[in-house]
Amino acid sequence: MRVKGGFGGFEGRGLQKGDLLPCGTGSLLPLPPSGMGLSALPLLPDKDGVELHLLPAAEYSEFTEQAQACLVEQPWRITTHANRVGYRLEGTMALQTRQPLSLLSHGLLPGTVQVPPSGQPIIQMADANTCGGYPKIGIIVEPELGILSQMPPGASISFRMINQEQALAQARAHRKNLRMLAAQIAATKPHILTQ
């Protein structure tokens, strides 16, 4: 796998199991007697898969009832076609619209779940395409994109639809946790800087 931007990676390819990366020398700092730690740990994906929360997207109602049900009832596997631009998913049942759609290109944001003619969804990630013309069935709630981005190809994900009020509550809770985490990190700086 070649890194798309032409830089980074390791020996001209993506990292592989067993790679050893060179690093500089460091010095160990003594810990304060009470130790250091974080009470607000960032969420990490479960090895058995994750459930991601979705809001219905612009063309959600254009999908068949069967497609809407399959979206949330079947597990999806992240394929090997997964990078910072998008994650292609694979499920047993393809998602279909009620009738063929001819959409103009429109803006996209990270978290958008598009469905190409194959019926296998594509999730736009951090370096999402700026525009696209596939119908959009859902939008992943922003705080969960960090969890999804840590999932490797082959991992299983599932979706659950939520409403706007639930999504806003989740976003507020996420911001609160980030502020707590930032405060805890800031509290360790005086100790580190005095060593």
Provide an overview of this structure.
The chain is an alpha+beta fold. Helices cover 22% and strands 21% of the residues. It has 3 helices and 9 strands. It has a 7-stranded mixed β-barrel with strand order 1-8-5-6-3-2-9. The longest helix is centred in the C-terminal third of the chain and has 30 residues, at 164-193. It starts with 49 loop residues before the first strand and ends with a helix. The mean pLDDT is 85.
Keywords:
seven-stranded mixed barrel, alpha+beta, single chain, two-stranded antiparallel ribbon
State the assembly state of the protein chains.
Answer: single chain
> How many strands in all?
9
Kindly name the structural category.
alpha+beta
- Sheet with the most strands: spatial strand order: 1-8-5-6-3-2-9
Strand content: 15-25%
Order of helices and strands: EHEEEEEEEHEH
Describe the global form. Answer: globular
How many helices in DSSP terms?
3
Summarize model confidence as the mean pLDDT: 85
Query: What level of helicity do the residues show?
Result: 10-25%
Task: Give a brief rundown of this model.
The chain is 22% helix and 21% strand. With 195 residues, the protein is an alpha+beta fold. The model has no long low-confidence stretch (mean pLDDT 85).
Helices and strands, with pairings:
Layout: E1 50-56, H1 65-73, E2 76-82, E3 86-90, E4 106-107, E5 112-114, E6 122-124, E7 131-132, E8 136-140, H2 145-148, E9 156-161, H3 164-193
Parallel strand pairs: 1-9
Antiparallel strand pairs: 1-8, 2-3, 2-9, 3-6, 4-7, 5-6, 5-8
